[in-house]
């Protein structure tokens, strides 16, 4: 049923002059889904309070609740045709009253880990791009049929939403930066193996794929109510610079079951590493930072290694933010291993001396659809220098692409050999003492 609803919603978007591509469809459907989710959440909290003999005070004022403006209902639950807005009236209400009201939730003193902050942040960044109030009316009616109250419903919605993000990743306009292939993420999560009671961080979280998959992995290991609450409140942390990615990341985590995701909308690299305290550090870091970007000189001043390459700055950020004994899995362009410029040499030295870079997964081209770059995954632990690096080269008998994507089966041998760091046709080890001690060249050979 949900799949048909999502198809219908996309059909309505295609007919609207204000939305032109998959990125617009995902962005605009995200704020509508978010408001429906909020209404379901408030209803659930109200019913729970009644059962417990307490009173729940809703976050959203009555006139801005879904059941008041979006799809108004009578007391018997039927749609109230007399209060149903459409056309220009509906668009005007959303743009001039609803969005400004919701934007107002982000005020001084509101903590970023509250749902109120998320509401204010999202609607402070968004615009209603739909050109027709009649199209919006059709979409609201479709979304009203969706529910977020059971785990089965959330599971199906998660699957459908992820497929939209995937399509968006193939849609051009840098869409690929929002989508890291899920088989690769799941493999990295398995290898890094985050533990309940510890923190997980992604400072370039995009659509929050790493945090969502880490949540799924850890949720299966949660045995008590306290452990499940720990996963909700104090385990997952992310930062994202771009508005659309931030909104999608929030929605993706909510659909996966995290009620008020600890995501911050900020430029991660604007933080000065000299100011990082122990309390700012994390136990596990999983990330695919953007590569190919360039940062301005004032941002570079926040780092000890001066470079404009975004991915290099993120790698230094992650090394700094990992606690002693903490583990990380970071995707980076394979040229990082061999580039001979000053920054590359310094960053490799830093990584090898401050961390145990115990494994490098060398990926074939085509893993990232349309990106046209070869990448590696660096697996390291903070606190002890590297003595030996285990390399695994993923050699496949087919070319990867849109119609032939990477699968978890492709990575099964890597996962099997990783604990022993065993040698095979595709894997070998290199002693750091045998490297060139000036360049620390780590080229995959």
Could you explain the architecture of this structure?
By secondary structure, the protein is of the alpha/beta class. Helix content is 42%, strand content 13%. It is built from 15 helices and nine strands. Strands 3-2-1-4-5-7-6-8-9 form a nine-stranded mixed β-sheet. Strand 2, helix 11 and strand 3 form a beta-alpha-beta unit. Helix 1 packs antiparallel against helix 6, helix 4 packs across helix 6 and helix 8 crosses helix 9. The longest helix is centred in the N-terminal third of the chain and has 30 residues. The protein starts with a helix and ends in a 14-residue tail after the last strand. About 1% of the residues have low confidence.
| Dominant shape | elongated
User: Distance between termini?
Assistant: 51 Å
Order of helices and strands: HHHHHHHHEHHEHEEHHEHEEEHE
Say how many strands there are. 9
Tell me the β content: 5-15%
Residue share in helices?
A: 40-55%
Strand order of the largest sheet: 3-2-1-4-5-7-6-8-9
As a whole number of angstroms, the C-alpha radius of gyration is 23 Å
pLDDT averaged over residues: 89
